[in-house]
Amino acid sequence: MSAAADTLLFAMRLLVLMCLVIAAAMQMQAASGAPPTAAKLAHCLKSCGGANISYPYGVGAGCFRPGFELTCDHSTKPPKLLLLGVATNTNTTTTKIVDQYRDGYVQAYVSFNIATTPGVLGTYNRTWESPGRILSIGPDYYALVAVGCGIEVYLVDPDTEDMLGYCFSMCTDMAMMHKEAEGKACSGMGCCVVTFRRPVRAFRVSITQREATQPFQVANASTIKVFLSEESTTYHYNFTIGDLLSDEINETTVASTSAYLSTFIADQPNCTIAQKDPERYACGDNKCLDADDENGGYRCACIKYTNSNPYLDGDCDQGYEPTRNRQNCSRSCGNMTIPFPFGLQEECSANRKFLLNCTSKQAFIGGSYTQYQVTNISLDQGLLFVNFSQHEEAYSELVEISRDNISQWVESWIDEFNDFDVSQHYGIWKWFVTNMTCEKAKKSSAYACISTNGECTGVTHGHVHLGYRCKCSTGYEGNPYILTSARYPMIVRECATTKQEATVALVALMAHLSIQPKGNALPPSNIILSWRGIQKKIRRDYFHKNKGLLLEQLISCDDSVAHKTKIFSLDELEKATNNFDSTRILGSGGHGTVYKGILSDQRVVAIKKSKIVEQSEIDQFVNEVAMLSQIIHRNVVKLFGCCLESEVPLLVYEFISNGTLYDLLHGNLQSKCVLTWWNRIRIALEAASALAYLHCAASVPIFHRDVKSANILLDDNFTTKVSDFGASRSVSIDETHVVTIVQGTFGYLDPEYYHTGQLNEKSDVYSFGVILIELITRKRPIFLNSIGEKQNLCHHFLQRQQNNTTSEIVDVQVLEEADQWEIDEIASLAEICLRLRGEQRPKMKEVELRLQLLRSKVAKKKNRVEVSRENEIDPLLLYTPSSSSVNPRDFNSASHNDATRCYTMEQELVSWTNLPR
């Protein structure tokens, strides 16, 4: 053999050897189990058929931890993501990954399609087990559904042979099945359900056919379908005859035919033992949690950023990167601008916390399986406006509500967004850069406020410091988080003076108008007139767009409204607020910003810039302005009128001087509250009276939808005024509810309304129950406990009630001023207002009457009975406790149906005359 041939052979052998070494190295890396970095997995497949892929799962060598291999099946359209190594005894079993999340949870579709021979009875056994038993099916909320005729289904533990559950399914004639079973949850006709009662990582299903013959219409139902399903009051499989006759289940309703499975590292029994083997330990420096079932194992979690992957090295340590704002980043999603530090790609956002995804022209924030639609981002105020996402990734939150386990839902919800303060408003969140003071942040190389005219400001929850954010200095507008030159568009420019921005706009207009043929250049005076003409036309166009003509017609048609309601011009309100100067801002809420104004007639008013963007909302807004103008109640804030000449309609209300109940209760917790126990009872009664009036006595029933202590104002005499109808909805007399987009404030939000989207008067009752708790405890709806953790006041109160320890959380001032029976009475009333099912709560009128009774008892005890100046005698003041035949804890008894009606004042006076004196 020649020397050249020897050299070539040697080179080929060397090449083969190098390939083997590389393959072995990759295999050793995968087998080691130590967490890799994101950079090492950059070449790995990130998704398949719409399903995300995150380590420890992966497709291809070096992309997964041993036992977590997936395959992307391209034989179907769209491709399917399948879990390899699932132990079954049939090739008709499918374990399809619907989606997979960074925290390890897997949404999976597990199904068996069992072919049978018509007329021949048989027994069929099928088993399922994930590779290395890494996946666990949670108890109580997931079930095995079997679709078939004349079958008995046994769910068995393959290790112990213990029976985990049993069900039976039979079929009748087609007409009966259409009537009794079609479109309904499984009841034993056509399908049946076996619920898992404990965590399971493997199971065997044994199916025995018991009926040789079936109705001829379903004789061709020769395939038994068995699949894993969500089974809750919200999501469950609904039987269809089509599924019975087909060869496989229709997967279009993914939510009901799939389940969320927990991922565990199962090669070690617990964290303690696993940490002794750093080469195989999966969590690295991240948090380790032991499995909560007898199978053992552990899972990893990020200590802070739940949107990160705890199975990757360094992925939990997502620091702020102020230089990520690239010029080629997309800065819009639909009609919404996405300013830095937020972004639509990781390299365009300051860190993953600020990462949004744009789907169907809508922006969403969140990771894992919780996502919320973002409707607006305010850099100036550090606010994020969100709606609950209807995407499948978010549906598990609704499931938690349906399980009547609010505490778990609140804890997981808050943990998911731990750098957002969600406690003030549902749908409006405070955000901050990171948990640092301004002094410390300025010394950091990752300091976010890099704009020349930007400055740092602290973000707090009450008196607790949360972190810092940035804002433009006084007199400047723009983005304080960036440094840019003039070539950038206005929406992404750094902080600049307001006058500079206005000058730029005027110069642009002058340049446009001045570019005329030679000799036709416009003089400056004409340019100014043109500018004013353009402004006038814009305002006129807004007036028409905002249905100004319709409102004028509605007002003119109602004489009772015409003399009270005014349509203001924008000039009037600009003069009243000094051009909406920031020093005139009274506050900001989920539905807009409120300014203090002084009209030309010297009336002091509150002017609200509503947050309305959709034309359909404009139509509703106009109708409700006309409706709210008719409300005349001493405890409801008066609406003077509105302005429709701006892009966003403006509302003009009476100005209430003493602020909100929220501020008086929660402002300075170190000092004694100015509200005595007697005043707190009176405020509760007046607020209940206003809400009862809205529900029953108004010409059209009105549901407030955002009842909270921040919307209860107090005037100079501390008289209660219910305010902020930005979320309110009116219904016709014969309607009991209205389906809406969920709005409200987190901590006050009715879980049933949140769960169903059906708003009714009982939603306001629930929120009012939270206010009652605030009045006796002086705690916020979401408060910080002694160790700095956020807690839900409603859940905390109900637990205390159950344990008879409510007095331990009652405000010290209340304990000093009130008798125990008085506190118990308010606590009992709050408890029934907070019942999970709306039908079990009292109506607002019943709440008002019960507070009337309490006030009369307290007044009699203190000898403080008063007669109103209008000579309106309150009959209940004469109503002694011994004469009462009403059980105050039972508002659902048939004997008190009269109390559930809407009363007129005349009816109430007549009914009260029959009470014992």
UniProtKB/TrEMBL annotation:
<feature type="signal peptide">
    <location>
        <begin position="1"/>
        <end position="33"/>
    </location>
</feature>
<dbReference type="InterPro" id="IPR000719">
    <property type="entry name" value="Prot_kinase_dom"/>
</dbReference>
<keyword id="KW-0812">Transmembrane</keyword>
<dbReference type="GO" id="GO:0005524">
    <property type="term" value="F:ATP binding"/>
</dbReference>
<dbReference type="GO" id="GO:0004674">
    <property type="term" value="F:protein serine/threonine kinase activity"/>
</dbReference>
<keyword id="KW-0723">Serine/threonine-protein kinase</keyword>
<protein>
    <recommendedName>
        <fullName>Protein kinase domain-containing protein</fullName>
    </recommendedName>
</protein>
<dbReference type="Pfam" id="PF00069">
    <property type="entry name" value="Pkinase"/>
</dbReference>
<dbReference type="InterPro" id="IPR017441">
    <property type="entry name" value="Protein_kinase_ATP_BS"/>
</dbReference>
<dbReference type="GO" id="GO:0005886">
    <property type="term" value="C:plasma membrane"/>
</dbReference>
<keyword id="KW-0325">Glycoprotein</keyword>
<keyword id="KW-1015">Disulfide bond</keyword>
<dbReference type="InterPro" id="IPR011009">
    <property type="entry name" value="Kinase-like_dom_sf"/>
</dbReference>
<keyword id="KW-0808">Transferase</keyword>
<keyword id="KW-0732">Signal</keyword>
<keyword id="KW-0067">ATP-binding</keyword>
<keyword id="KW-0472">Membrane</keyword>
<keyword id="KW-0547">Nucleotide-binding</keyword>
<dbReference type="InterPro" id="IPR025287">
    <property type="entry name" value="WAK_GUB"/>
</dbReference>
<dbReference type="InterPro" id="IPR045274">
    <property type="entry name" value="WAK-like"/>
</dbReference>
<dbReference type="InterPro" id="IPR008271">
    <property type="entry name" value="Ser/Thr_kinase_AS"/>
</dbReference>
<keyword id="KW-0175">Coiled coil</keyword>
<feature type="binding site">
    <location>
        <position position="609"/>
    </location>
    <ligand>
        <name>ATP</name>
    </ligand>
</feature>
<dbReference type="GO" id="GO:0007166">
    <property type="term" value="P:cell surface receptor signaling pathway"/>
</dbReference>
<feature type="coiled-coil region">
    <location>
        <begin position="844"/>
        <end position="871"/>
    </location>
</feature>
<keyword id="KW-1133">Transmembrane helix</keyword>
<dbReference type="Pfam" id="PF13947">
    <property type="entry name" value="GUB_WAK_bind"/>
</dbReference>
<dbReference type="GO" id="GO:0030247">
    <property type="term" value="F:polysaccharide binding"/>
</dbReference>
<keyword id="KW-0418">Kinase</keyword>
<feature type="domain" description="Protein kinase">
    <location>
        <begin position="580"/>
        <end position="854"/>
    </location>
</feature>
